[in-house]
Amino acid sequence: MRSIPQWFVMAWVVVFGAIAVGGSLLAYTFVRDRAAELDSVVDLPELPQLGSGSSDQMDATPTPDDGAAPAGDLTPTLDAAAGDEPAAQATESAPDEAEPSSEETLVAVAPWQDPRRVSILLLGIDQRAGETGTFATDTIILLSLDPVGKTGALLSIPRDLWVQMPGLNQPGRINTANIIGDDINYPGGGGPAYAARVVEKELGITIQHYVLINFEVFTTLIDAIGPVEVCPPEPIDDDQYPDGSYGTISIHFDAGCQELNAERLLQYARTRHSDSDIGRSSRQQEVILAVRDKVLSAGGVLSLLPQVPALWRSVQDNIRTDLTLEEVISLARTAESIPDSEIRQSQISFGEVELGTTADGDQILMPIHSDIQALVQDLFRPPGTPSSREEPAP
Description:
The protein has helices spanning 6-37, 103-107, 177-183, 191-203, 215-225, 262-270, 277-297, 301-304, 308-315, 325-336, 369-379, and strands spanning 118-125, 137-146, 151-156, 162-165, 170-173, 209-213, 228-230, 236-242, 248-253, 258-260, 319-321, 343-347, 353-357, 363-367. By secondary structure, the chain is of the alpha+beta class. The protein has a single domain, classed as Aminopeptidase, CATH 3.40.630.190. The strands form 5 sheets. The protein has a 6-stranded mixed sheet, with helices on both faces. A two-stranded antiparallel ribbon has the order 4-5. Strands 7-10 form a two-stranded antiparallel sheet. The longest helix has 32 residues, at 6-37. The radius of gyration is 25 Å and the shape is globular.
């Protein structure tokens, strides 16, 4: 039997080596180009859902590659994005959450320790009684805290803002990002995580956390702390306020300071037909700060700790967040230490947007990106620095 020439063996080694190297280069090029096409969607890490621990415990979170959805994810379709009213959709049952920490453990929770600015996207959905599924976000507010500079910022974002959806090469209203994120099973938490990504791209900032709630969470919280005082500057009449069953009722608020229970406070925060979404955004920020004042007047966050474990259990089915209970308390303790004078408030409004229409003739708000960037930079300016957007005093 003739032996195989050594040159023949070496030739095949070279050929197979070239094939292997070429294949690797092609694979790398495909993955690189695909990642660029998706606008780095595939590069974002998974974040845990409610009750699963802080963001450094990511190894246990399933990725889209293994076919599992993140904990608490919904099973949506994009049908609800087509209209103004949310569509009822099936939802998977969330796994049983771990028991919240005891009051003794929570008392020991310190204020936020990371000195870097932390930004949280607050999302509110219009989920009616008996509905399940995923919904458009009626409320979008960015809350940002500077633990070292002792400043805070609230920025309201209009739901009709027309934006590019990262990774999808398509535009849409910003309030549909939650629906889209659930539909594509976006890494890190589905809809709320994708909404945070959309706002990041639009504002040019980093958002570390998100909290999505429905009306049940809001009313449960207000019932726990008691009536909250707000001060409408003029009377409010709305004869088209939604009644929760796709009908309408009439509501009225007198001008002047008044304490409102949970149901009335929710109405105050949601009404918009007497003025506009811009007026509603101002009321929503007023309500957030009024709740903060109520808690402070009762002795601060620590005074509420006896109620917190039971309260946390009661809202777990109606909240989606990547924050643990301990992190929520830590952030709250930091927020209550910021002086009222150092809490900056603003909203993206006319001046940062202009009216536009879709191809179907629906009205939208087109962003003026340079003005939005100027607004964000002003909100995040160093402590003690005067606003560049205010007229200097004569």
